[in-house]
Amino acid sequence: xxxxxxxxxxxxxxxxxxxxxxxxxxxxxxxxxxxxxxxxxxxxxxxxxxxxxxxxxxxxxxxxxxxxxxxxxxxxxxxxxxxxxxxxxxxxxxxxxxxxxxxxxxxxxxxxxxxxxxxxxxxxxxxxxxxxxxxxxxxxxxxxxxxxxxxxxxxxxxxxxxxxxxxxxxxxxxxxxxxxxxxxxxxxxxxxxxxxxxxxxxxxxxxxxxxxxxxxxxxxxxxxxxxxxxx
Length: 231
Known about the structure:
A hairpin with a 2-residue loop joins strand 1 (10-22) and strand 2. With 231 residues, the chain is mainly beta. The protein has no helices and 16 strands. Helix content is 0%, strand content 62%. It starts with 9 loop residues before the first strand and ends with a strand.
């Protein structure tokens, strides 16, 4: 880093929290703040009007995390909620401040597990609000620049959102003896049981004077199996 072409990155952060535990209950609240200066727009993975723009800037994130956990004999369950606001600042861009590419405002996670003997069953739910994206201006998607190139006419950076993310997973683990020397571990899991369409990325290209949307999706319903032998 030379602080001219390659910025020197500096950061400040602060966090504070409260934990309360009693009768197998755990309650937790944590607040946090972080500021990072000296980032380059080229390192942020923009796929919009700033994809090839080199500017120095910063980002600031602030938020709060809640967690509640309960243990009851062979059963454990937890529920968490997070709120975060993550914003860029680039003084030389038209939008002085705008949401970070990783700005997820709301996240809810639920998990539970039950163990009986050598069998462990688990269930988990993960939901979060959609990540930012930048769409073409409706009805005015294209323009021709001074060099005669046809380009996408984008709305303000990260001013839209993808659909919310939702995933339900389940798993079962079982340990058993094959013999006095060999022990087996069998695991079966299903990712995204509801087969929900989760969009995790969206960018646009121009083909034959038309705007083409390119969407990246997370895995659909996906079963997995593992088998391991130890001795």
